[in-house]
Design brief:
Number of domains: 1
Strand content: 5-15%
Largest sheet: 8 strands, parallel, barrel
CATH topology: TIM Barrel
Bound molecules: phosphoenolpyruvate, cobalt (II) ion
Radius of gyration: 22 Å
Shape: globular
């Protein structure tokens, strides 16, 4: 394996951390030929697990290549069209789910509550924006995590970091932390069963608008949320009006809920890519939407190369250090022809930086002219450690970043296209604040995440009510 070398200050070579080239003998699948999307092989691949047994990995990826697709090219095309509408201000995207899904929590109850939360938020946002809300779960595939350190030390013992259930196990023993290729097959199977549930819940009447509205009324009966009462009352009246006007609610029984995850594990994403029989083009069939994270968005790196080869709508996370030139070269790499809905930038700048760093990027993209769907991830730039030692976020700071996102778009004359959040439908205590006043002390009660802190069910709805108010302002200024 050749470590990548870049010149450092003073001319001495510096080893780039957590980056490796894929060994040449892994290049060829059974046929001995490279697939058209396998041009990433040989490029710098950040954040990849190091497997002890490459033969085992080859067997697993050969099996994955024979599995049926998890999503279909026609659905992927529909989502791309919706993402294009969001870039023009004709729809708003809600993307949310766990930081890291786990195999243990891919159960009917957890999935149902997460879907329920997304649908409840979507109803509120639809009303606020007076626009269709495009619903995308961070779900059915979000099982691998980039880590800031390859190793973790506890009480003097150092082991490989947990990289998500798709790679190794959270338990702190040498056996559990050893990356296991077999987990890629479990990833596929858990994603398939989760998608099956999603399809059943969203196409079987469970997502009926009247039903979702009833759930929201339950939320509103909590006095902590009294300040959203008038918005909730407006939504209630609108739904009653629709009923009185003879809207056929039966036609509103089904919703589309798309899937997404970070395209991190290159062997898995590559093995799940298929040629679409209608168009002859490659689609990543592991999810409808895929994104590259802040740590794997290197323009010349393997992740961007792989994503540049598939037809799916693609996102890239942009942190506060993103330069104008980096952003423009990502547009060159991922959306050279300016196709609508193809490329989203998901900004995660931090509440204290967003107003200063986002506006110049928005202006540069606007001048460039190729369309971008702009989404805010108000979670990852605002992670702190509580006085009690938990990795957490403050609800108020998260909301401040969302506000900063809307302000930046207003000042650049661009379109705020969506919200990307880490949430769960469960009643956890991982994020501080909100109307339920979770504080440093109560984090301990139900802190369940294995990686980043998530908004709980109530905090998610509270966010939706606040964002609905910002969206209502945007739509009234356009009238
Ligand atoms: C994430 O979305 O969980 C994540 C790791 O984000 P980022 O790449 O923005 O740090
Ligand atoms: Co996260």
């Amino acid at each position: 394996m050749i470590p990548s070398i870049t010149p450092g200050r003073g001319g001495e070579p510096v080893r780039k951390p957590r980056s490796r080239r894929v060994p040449e003998r892994l290049w060829s699948p059974e046929s001995g030929e490279l697939a058209p999307w396998d041009t990433w092989r040989g490029l710098d691949a950040a954040q990849q697990p190091t497997y002890a047994n490459d033969e085992h990995l080859l067997e697993v990826t050969a099996q994955l290549r024979r599995q049926p697709p998890l999503v279909f090219a026609g659905e992927v095309d529909d989502l791309r069209t919706w993402m294009g509408a969001a870039a023009r201000g004709e729809a708003f995207v809600l993307m949310g789910g766990d930081c890291a899904e786990t195999f243990a929590e891919a159960t009917a109850d957890h999935v149902r509550l997460k879907i329920q939360t997304l649908l409840q938020m979507a109803v509120v946002l639809t009303y606020g924006a007076s626009l269709p809300v495009v619903k995308v779960g961070r779900i059915a595939g979000q099982y691998a995590k980039p880590r800031s350190s390859d190793m973790e030390t506890r009480d003097g013992v150092t082991l490989p970091s947990y990289r998500g259930d798709a790679v190794n196990s959270f338990e702190f023993t040498p056996e559990a932390r050893e990356p296991d290729p077999q987990r890629l097959l479990s990833l596929y199977n858990h994603a398939a069963s989760t998608l099956n549930l999603i399809r059943a819940f969203t196409k079987g009447g469970y997502a009926d608008l009247r039903q979702v509205h009833r759930w929201n009324q339950g939320f509103m009966s909590n006095p902590a949320y009294a300040r959203y009462e008038s918005l909730a009352e407006d939504i209630h009246r609108a739904i009653k009006f629709m009923g009185a006007a003879g809207v056929d609610f039966e036609t509103l029984r089904d919703v589309d809920l798309f899937s997404s995850h970070e395209a991190l594990l290159l062997e898995y994403e590559s093995a799940m890519t298929r040629i679409d029989s209608r168009t002859g083009e490659p689609y990543n069939t592991s999810a409808h939407f895929l994104w590259a994270g802040e740590r794997t968005r290197e323009e010349e790196g393997a992740h961007i190369e792989l994503l540049s080869r598939v037809r799916n709508p693609i996102g890239v996370k942009l942190g506060p250090s993103t330069t104008r030139d980096q952003m423009l070269s990502l547009i060159d790499r991922l959306n050279p022809d300016g196709e609508e809905g193809r490329l989203s930038f998901i900004t995660r700048m931090g509440a204290d930086r967003i107003r200063e760093v986002l506006v110049p990027l928005l202006e540069a993209a606007r001048e460039d002219g190729r369309p971008v769907t702009w989404m805010t991830d108000p979670m990852h730039g605002n992670t702190i450690t509580s006085s009690t030692g938990y990795k957490t976020r403050r609800f108020e700071t998260v909301m401040d970043e969302v506000r900063g996102f809307f302000e930046a778009h207003e000042s650049a004359g661009t379109v705020p296209g969506g919200l990307h959040v880490e949430l769960t439908g469960d009643d956890v205590t991982e994020v501080i604040g909100g109307s339920e006043h979770i504080d440093d002390e109560s984090l301990h009660d139900r802190y369940e995440t294995l990686v980043d802190p998530r908004l709980n069910h109530q905090q998610s709805l509270e966010m939706a009510f606040q964002v609905a108010q910002y969206l209502a302002k945007v739509s009234s200024s356009e009238e």
